[in-house]
């Protein structure tokens, strides 16, 4: 029962396994079969039995199926056998037909092969044509490139290269010739760069050589434009009836030299106006710039161009060592600089980025500093005012030219103010020579006037006004000498010369007026004053000449107001303006006159000394000659003649000279008496000396120069007179008694002076007569002298103790 129960449980399991085997993929049947063996020990046997039963069932079903379809199968075989015969017949026919068809197609095959071959050739030709149509434009462009290279059309060649690379080469890049072309293009580009750079170098060298011509042309054009403006302004001024002062210029009649062009025209009839493009071919730099732009290396080109131009700028700014010797040296220097910057300005405006405004400004500032340093150094060597003036005109044209191209030039005009001071210095040196020549050629005598024509000629040169002289009949004399009108004319010429430098400096009339007055003051206070002082100090200038110099300076001083008016007429600036500088001529001529007066006093005293040195007194004479000494009479006659010349001098000058001469003569005579080398003086010598002093007093009382009050001039000899009276009268008791009293008769006699002279007389008394001690009168006189000497010494000792 147990087994039967177990058997019933196994049968469904085997059926399930069989169903799985039948329905499962063969590759996956392994696990199912393994489950048969995993079951109970007899399960395999039972499964096999079950499998055999299943197989038998299937065989039965197959057999049923075959039996069901067997008749149909037999019928089909029977039909197929019938068809076999027909099939064999058909095969024979097909084989025959095929044979006949093959035989007929052999010729067609041959023709077809020919057609195929032709079609292949046709296709190849078409392909070749298509490829050639692609290659021919490339070859044509490359050929065009070669032609452009040969024709030096490098910019076009680079554009052709771009087209080849971007358009044509991509179409034929698979061909070897294309690769060769592609490989050759970089070399062609380098060749173009080298060639264009070589052209640029030639261009740079060319503009370096032609810079002076470019600058000269530009400066000519600037000057012509300026002259045209000047002429136009002159015409307008004439039209409106104005005085012609153009840009603070000097009057028309003095402006002939100023309007003379700095640059002489080579061809006066040449009307063509040349430009920088007419003088320089800029195509190399344009071409090189375009080439480097196309090559993408524009920065390299810009750096190279700027570097080379900076080097050229340094060369242009380096002057020649002897530039200061001639105006042509300065002109070449300026024209080269102008040419350089005109080219740079042109490059700035016609190219994009090759040079920039910042670059040109930096270059100009560097150049301007160098130019100013060079001009400041070289102009300092100029000693010719005409050369300095021409240099100034060149600088003005130079500045105006560059200003027209947009370069700032204010520093150049500031430099001109420095050069103006130097110009004034050279003018002062030149006029110092002019003044010296005038003084050397002057005869220092009044100007003789024979007729009215001569008088008008002098008056036209110098503003002389004197009603008394005008009333005189011809011939007559003007008080001043020939040097006065000549100096006045030369001062005006100096003002004209100074004014020439002030024009075109873009300064107001007030500033020009101030400059003229300051430079004229320098001429008067320094140059003319120095020349006058040197003239006064010259040894060959005598008293007559000094008198004439004083007269001349008086008239020159009076003419200063006319110089003021002269400057006012030029500048149209009134003297009443607050800031107007006054001329210092008054003080200049006053100082010169004072110096001349002092020199008169000095020379007069020297002349007196010369006469005094001729004195030959016999100091031991017993009796006087009874007349004054010859040297003194000659001296007095000389003084009389000199003081007659002094009548043309101002009264105080003549009086001072006369008083100074008398005082000096008195002092010299006193020193003669008190000379330490003079050991003895007799009474006779004193009496003779008294006669000479009397002549001096007579001369003083004769009023050799009018204007003295009473006996003022005689007081110059009061010291001598009281001393001589004391010895002549021998009034020692009165002298000693009244000494120190304001009302003393011998107030001017110094005890020391009296003692010195008395000792000289004492020694004389001893030596005159060795027997004097035996004569009572002589003994008494000697005792009296000794007594007076003791009293004087006692008086002097008392004075020293009191002091």
TrEMBL record:
Residues in Exocyst complex subunit EXOC6/Sec15 C-terminal domain copies: 412-760
Assigned GO CC terms: exocyst; plasma membrane
Domain (Exocyst complex component EXOC6/Sec15 N-terminal) ranges: 50-219
PANTHER family cross-referenced by the UniProt entry: EXOCYST COMPLEX COMPONENT 6, SEC15
Family: Belongs to the SEC15 family.
GO biological process, alphabetically ordered: Golgi to plasma membrane transport; intracellular protein transport; vesicle tethering involved in exocytosis
Function: Component of the exocyst complex involved in the docking of exocytic vesicles with fusion sites on the plasma membrane.
InterPro entries for the chain: EXOC6/Sec15, EXOC6/Sec15_C, EXOC6/Sec15_C_dom1, EXOC6_Sec15_N, EXOC6PINT-1/Sec15/Tip20_C_dom2
Ranges that cross the membrane: none
Keywords assigned: Exocytosis, Transport
Pfam families: EXOC6_Sec15_N, Sec15_C
Record protein name field: Exocyst complex component
């Amino acid at each position: 029962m147990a087994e039967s129960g177990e058997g019933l449980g196994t049968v469904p399991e085997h059926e399930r396994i069989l169903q799985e085997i039948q329905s499962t993929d063969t590759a996956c049947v392994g696990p199912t079969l393994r489950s048969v063996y995993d079951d109970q020990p007899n399960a395999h046997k039972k499964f096999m039995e079950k499998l055999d039963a299943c197989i038998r069932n299937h065989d039965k079903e197959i057999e049923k199926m075959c039996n069901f379809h067997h008749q149909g199968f037999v019928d089909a075989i029977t039909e197929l056998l019938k068809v076999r015969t027909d099939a064999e017949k058909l095969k024979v026919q097909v084989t025959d037909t095929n044979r006949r068809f093959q035989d007929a197609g052999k010729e067609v095959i041959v023709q077809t092969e020919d057609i195929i071959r032709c079609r292949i050739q046709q296709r190849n030709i078409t392909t070749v044509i298509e490829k050639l149509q692609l290659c021919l434009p490339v070859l044509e462009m490359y050929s065009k490139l070669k032609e452009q290279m040969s024709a030096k059309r490098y910019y076009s060649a680079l554009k052709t290269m771009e087209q080849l690379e971007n358009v044509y080469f991509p179409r034929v890049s698979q061909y070897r010739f294309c690769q060769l072309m592609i490989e050759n293009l970089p070399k062609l580009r380098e060749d173009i760069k080298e060639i264009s750079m070589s052209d640029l170098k030639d261009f740079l060298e060319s503009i370096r050589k032609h810079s002076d011509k470019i600058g000269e042309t530009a400066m000519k054009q600037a000057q012509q434009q300026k002259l045209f403006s000047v002429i136009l302004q002159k015409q307008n001024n004439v039209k409106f009836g104005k005085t012609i002062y153009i840009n603070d210029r000097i009057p028309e009649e003095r402006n002939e030299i100023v309007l003379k062009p700095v640059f002489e025209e080579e061809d006066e009839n040449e009307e063509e106006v040349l430009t920088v493009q007419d003088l320089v071919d800029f195509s190399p730099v344009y071409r090189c710039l375009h080439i480097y732009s196309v090559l993408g290396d524009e920065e390299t080109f810009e750096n190279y161009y700027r570097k080379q131009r900076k080097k050229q700028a340094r060369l242009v700014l380096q002057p020649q060592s002897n530039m200061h010797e001639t105006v042509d040296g300065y002109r070449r220097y300026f024209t080269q600089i102008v040419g350089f910057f005109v080219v740079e300005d042109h490059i700035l405006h016609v190219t994009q980025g090759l040079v920039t405004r910042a670059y040109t400004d930096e270059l100009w500032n560097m150049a301007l500093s160098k130019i100013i340093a060079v001009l400041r150094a070289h102009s300092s060597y100029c000693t010719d005012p005409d050369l300095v003036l021409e240099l100034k005109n060149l600088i003005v044209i130079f500045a105006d030219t560059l200003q027209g191209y947009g370069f700032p030039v204010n520093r150049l005009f500031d430099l001109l103010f420095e050069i103006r001071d130097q110009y004034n210095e050279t003018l002062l040196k030149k006029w110092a020579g002019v003044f010296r020549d005038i003084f050397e050629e002057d005869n220092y005598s009044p100007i003789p006037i024979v007729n009215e024509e001569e008088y008008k000629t002098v008056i036209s040169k110098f503003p002389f006004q004197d009603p008394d002289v005008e009333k005189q009949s011809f011939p007559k004399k003007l008080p001043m000498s020939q040097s006065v009108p000549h100096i006045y004319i030369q001062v005006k010429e100096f003002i004209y010369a100074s004014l020439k430098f002030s024009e075109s400096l873009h300064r107001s009339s007030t500033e020009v007026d101030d400059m003229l007055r300051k430079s004229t003051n320098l001429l008067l206070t320094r140059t003319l004053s120095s020349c006058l002082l040197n003239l006064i100090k010259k040894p060959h200038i005598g008293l007559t000449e000094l008198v004439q110099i004083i007269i001349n300076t008086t008239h020159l001083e009076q003419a200063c107001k006319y110089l003021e008016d002269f400057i006012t007429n030029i500048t149209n600036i009134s003297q009443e303006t607050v800031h107007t500088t006054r001329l210092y001529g008054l003080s200049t001529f006053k100082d010169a006159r004072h110096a001349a007066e002092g020199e008169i006093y000095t020379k007069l005293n020297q002349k007196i000394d010369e006469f005094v040195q001729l004195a030959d007194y016999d100091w031991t004479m017993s009796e006087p000659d009874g007349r004054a000494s010859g040297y003194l009479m000659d001296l007095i006659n000389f003084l009389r003649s000199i003081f007659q010349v002094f009548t043309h001098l101002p009264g105080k000058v003549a009086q001072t000279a006369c008083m100074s001469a008398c005082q000096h003569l008195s002092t010299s005579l006193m020193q003669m008496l008190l000379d330490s080398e003079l050991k003895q003086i007799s009474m006779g010598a004193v009496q003779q000396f008294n006669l000479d002093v009397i002549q001096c007093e007579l001369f003083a009382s004769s009023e050799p120069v009018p204007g003295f009050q009473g006996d003022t001039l005689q007081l110059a000899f009061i010291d001598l007179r009281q001393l001589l009276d004391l010895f002549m009268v021998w009034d020692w008791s009165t002298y000693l008694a009244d000494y120190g009293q304001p009302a003393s008769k011998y107030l001017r006699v110094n005890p020391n002076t009296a003692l010195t002279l008395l000792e000289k007389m004492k020694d004389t008394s001893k030596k005159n007569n060795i027997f004097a001690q035996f004569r009572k009168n002589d003994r008494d006189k000697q005792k009296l002298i000794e007594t007076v000497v003791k009293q004087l010494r006692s008086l002097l000792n008392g004075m020293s103790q009191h002091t």
